[in-house]
């Protein structure tokens, strides 16, 4: 009941986005209950994406208007933010063409004589830097990339300019501790975890052409999928 009451107050903006909920002691007095019960209610709020507990600050109300990334879909950042109607910006932090190191050779399943576009892009939404995309693209598969293309949309360039068709992707999801690079390039103050999505992206002829490590600040994103139960075995 306490959890549901707090959810209702968040929806009604009695506790607006980015505000701090009353302390555990204040909530204990407000609801005339034990501190343990309040902690259970706050844990439920955190688990369901309503609040983020930050050491030394308290429980901060999160923005419920999260970008929804379809797990089984393949959509560009430009397409996604265009449908959500949010202010977005891409900053190209690095753009080079070079021979791959051993890790990228392994991820892209290529030999060392192949050249790879290395593209690191910071994604800003509503003024906050919340995604770091680290793209590695086989140059022989996708020639002619420029920094300006990377700032706009690589997928759009592949499909509309090169006339190639993107087929499918394999994705791996993990939650990790942020690196020094994450803290340097993203607005990560108060966050102690980052969602990492590794994408192996293929053309429609099943040729692997891109490996992307996409690093997401956890408060702004919801990964969604639709699953159908098959018949009983």
From TrEMBL:
This is Trehalose operon repressor. GO terms for biological process: negative regulation of DNA-templated transcription. InterPro entries: Bact_HTH_transcr_reg, Chorismate_lyase_/UTRA_dom_sf, TreR, Tscrpt_reg_HTH_GntR, UTRA, WH-like_DNA-bd_sf, WH_DNA-bd_sf. It comes from Bacillus mesophilum. One of its GO terms (molecular function) is DNA binding. The gene is treR. Pfam families: GntR, UTRA. Residues 1-64 form the HTH gntR-type domain. The keyword Repressor applies. SUPFAM superfamilies: Chorismate lyase-like, Winged helix' DNA-binding domain. Keywords: DNA-binding, Repressor, Transcription, Transcription regulation. The keyword Zinc does not apply.
């Amino acid at each position: 009941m306490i959890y549901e009451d707090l959810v209702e107050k968040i929806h009604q903006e009695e506790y607006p986005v980015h505000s701090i909920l009353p302390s555990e002691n204040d909530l204990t007095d407000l609801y005339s209950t034990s501190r343990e019960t309040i902690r259970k209610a706050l844990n439920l709020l955190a688990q369901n994406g309503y609040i983020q507990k930050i050491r030394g600050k308290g429980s901060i109300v999160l923005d419920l208007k999260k970008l929804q990334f379809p797990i089984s879909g393949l959509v560009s950042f430009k397409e996604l933010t265009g449908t959500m109607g949010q202010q977005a910006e891409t900053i190209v932090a690095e753009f080079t063409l070079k021979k791959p190191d051993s890790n990228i050779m392994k991820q892209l399943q290529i030999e060392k004589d192949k050249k790879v576009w290395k593209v690191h892009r910071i994604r800003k939404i509503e003024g906050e830097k919340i995604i770091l995309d680290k793209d590695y693209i086989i140059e022989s598969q996708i020639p002619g990339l420029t920094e300006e293309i990377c700032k706009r949309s690589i997928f759009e360039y592949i499909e509309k300019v090169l006339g190639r068709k993107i087929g499918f992707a394999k994705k791996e999801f993990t939650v990790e501790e942020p690196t020094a690079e994450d803290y340097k390039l993203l607005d990560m103050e108060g966050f102690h975890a980052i969602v990492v999505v590794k994408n192996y992206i293929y053309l429609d002829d099943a040729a692997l052409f891109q490996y992307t490590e996409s690093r997401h600040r956890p408060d702004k994103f919801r990964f969604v999928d639709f699953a159908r139960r098959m018949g009983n075995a």
